[in-house]
Design goal:
The protein has about 280 residues and is an alpha/beta fold. Helix content is about 25%, strand content about 25%.
């Protein structure tokens, strides 16, 4: 499929010629996890919401079809953004997705920029992380499960093949996205201090957020392929001067930038649909 055809798809048009619209409910559903500013996916059809019980608690997600592809959409913070980042039940969320048949997960992370070259509205396709969290359940394997103690490799925590799908989709719809970025995860819900941001920058961090870890490592433990798009919405503390970070500032950037993230996801899903039965 040409780049122009994929661009048409991202704008809601079917490509010309003999490319069919397919319905592929037999495929493993694609998991999409999002947080601040992304509370529903209007593109989903035939939707229904499920609350499931796992060994780690309850999780709630929405099933639907997107370009005929089965999708499971989960919003981290729950209805009305009611769950703060340090209390999100990451284990239940990832376990629920795996139990629902998901094998690939695309996540969206709203972030502050540590790299001063990044501007609000910039996008990154993440390839590594730093963990500055301190009170979260970070593993399925706490020594009490039949598996015992398990040490999981996270050299490629953000799966290379899924990252390529994101980058290809962004190119197709004409959206600039940085290939690579280190996500520094902090505990929240407060914003970081300037000193914490300086520390993260010394360690190689590019963006700061509060939800990417342990989500990414739990996905690895569950055997899921995982990749993430980071949307920068503000300079992190001390990067953009002395002005405090406000939710109004973040919401303004989200209002003008969320559609760009959705266009990338739309193209990625459409491409999967086109090639699903070939």
């Amino acid at each position: 499929m040409s780049g122009s055809e994929r661009g048409d798809a991202a704008r809601g048009r079917q490509p010309p010629g003999n490319v069919p619209r397919v319905t592929t409910p037999h495929l493993s559903p694609l998991g999409i996890i999002a947080g601040t500013g992304f509370y529903d996916l209007e593109a989903l059809t035939d939707t229904h919401t499920e609350t499931v019980t796992t060994a780690f608690g309850e999780a709630r997600f929405t099933r639907g079809l997107w370009h005929g592809i089965p999708v499971v959409f989960l919003t981290r913070h729950g209805a009305g953004h009611s769950v703060p980042p340090h209390l999100v039940n990451y284990r239940a969320n990832i376990r629920a997705l795996a139990d629902a048949g998901v094998r690939d997960v695309i996540a969206v992370n709203v972030t502050g920029s540590i790299d001063p070259d990044l501007e609000p509205g910039d996008l990154l396709c993440l390839d590594d992380f730093l963990d500055f969290t301190k009170s979260r359940a970070v593993s399925f394997f706490d020594g009490t499960t039949p598996e015992g103690v398990v040490h999981t490799d996270v050299l490629h925590a953000y799966h290379p093949d899924l990252r390529h799908e994101i980058l290809d989709a962004a190119a197709s719809v004409g959206e600039s996205i940085r290939d690579g970025g280190v996500y520094a995860c902090f505990e929240g819900p407060r914003f970081e201090t300037p000193a914490e941001i300086r520390l993260a920058r010394l360690a190689g961090g590019d963006v700061a957020g509060m939800t990417g870890v342990p989500e990414v490592t739990l996905a690895a433990e569950a055997g899921l392929r995982y990749a993430a798009i980071s949307l920068v919405v503000n300079p992190a503390a001390g990067v953009g001067g002395a002005e405090p970070i406000t939710m109004a500032e973040i919401e303004t950037v989200l209002a003008r930038s969320a559609t760009r993230v959705l266009a990338i996801l739309d193209d990625l899903v459409h491409t999967r649909a086109v090639f699903a039965d070939r």
